[in-house]
Amino acid sequence: MDNVELDMDVASLPKQKWVGDEHLVQFGGFWFVPQHMKLIKRVINHFTPLPTDVILATSPKTGTTWLKSLLYSILNRSFKHKLAVQHPHQLVPFLEGPPDSDELSFPTASLDTCRLFSTHISYQLLAKTLDSCECRVVYLTRNPKDTLVSLWHFMKKRRANQPWTIDEAADAFCRGVTPYGPYYDHVIGYRALSLKRPENVMFVNYEEMKEDPHGHVKKLGDFLGCPFQEEDEVKEIVKNCSFEVQSSYEVNKSEQSLIKNLFPYNSFFRKGKTGDHVNYLSNELIQRIDTLTKQRFHSLDFMYGI
């Protein structure tokens, strides 16, 4: 994908209605909020990772906030107390930045230090960037049904004045018309990369993380090149990054917005549980998503999501 294509006018991109009267635009096979396209294109064109960089890649609403807390604590152990006063999204910036920013701004670093970033951009769009560097990538995915329900709640909080039913949300999800979606393509891209380059890419899922956070924090420490020497340190990070502790901090209960007039800090802490979809999805919707999951994941011998 060359720069001529990347510099095309956003207005010329295919569009689909999403929530209320809003729409998403399609670029490179994925869907985006139009206002985000400027910085997304700049990341694809101009971001050059350092070998020491760590990038957390996720599809939206798959546990990004929790993993930001854990990765920040693992890599910045003497500064992990900052999570009590700063939101995880402040401490671990998105590569694509806030949509009201005009410029990309990456912290400078030497080859002896580590920068930690997050992104929702698919591997398919970042392939040239990631294939040509030795940075480490942690990819987190989540059961598609729980991902859908979390996205639905998140957008209802943001778009309280624009009704969006769970049936409408499920239909958009199954068609792939969600921010940074299709979800299935997003997951498949990074999974393939992790199988190709396991020394550089660690692929984990939310359910296994929740079941054994202690074991996964140790694995993350090893993968990131900073193994733990003391079990108590692992226990402390797991506890301090838990939903119960993180959601109790005043900064994370705040109605203040991370981005101007968008998504208050407290909207990133709802339940943090697995299997919550059974409380919101009908049997018909569960069947529809499970059928799609079998077609997209199980057909590739990726037995996940059901």
What do these coordinates show?
This protein has 14 helices and nine strands. It has 306 residues and is α/β, with parallel strands linked by helices. It has a single domain, classed as 3-Layer(aba) Sandwich (Rossmann fold). A four-stranded parallel beta sheet has the order 5-4-6-7, sandwiched between helices. A three-stranded antiparallel beta sheet has the order 1-2-3, with no helix packed on it. Strands 8-9 form a two-stranded antiparallel ribbon. The protein is globular, with a radius of gyration of 19 Å. Residues 1-7 have low confidence and may be disordered.
Describe the structure concisely for a colleague.
The protein is an alpha/beta fold. It contains 14 helices and nine strands. The chain has helices spanning 3-6, 37-46, 64-75, 88-91, 123-131, 144-158, 166-175, 183-196, 206-211, 213-223, 231-240, 243-246, 250-253, 283-296, and strands at residues 15-17, 23-27, 30-32, 54-58, 116-119, 136-141, 201-205, 257-259, 262-264.
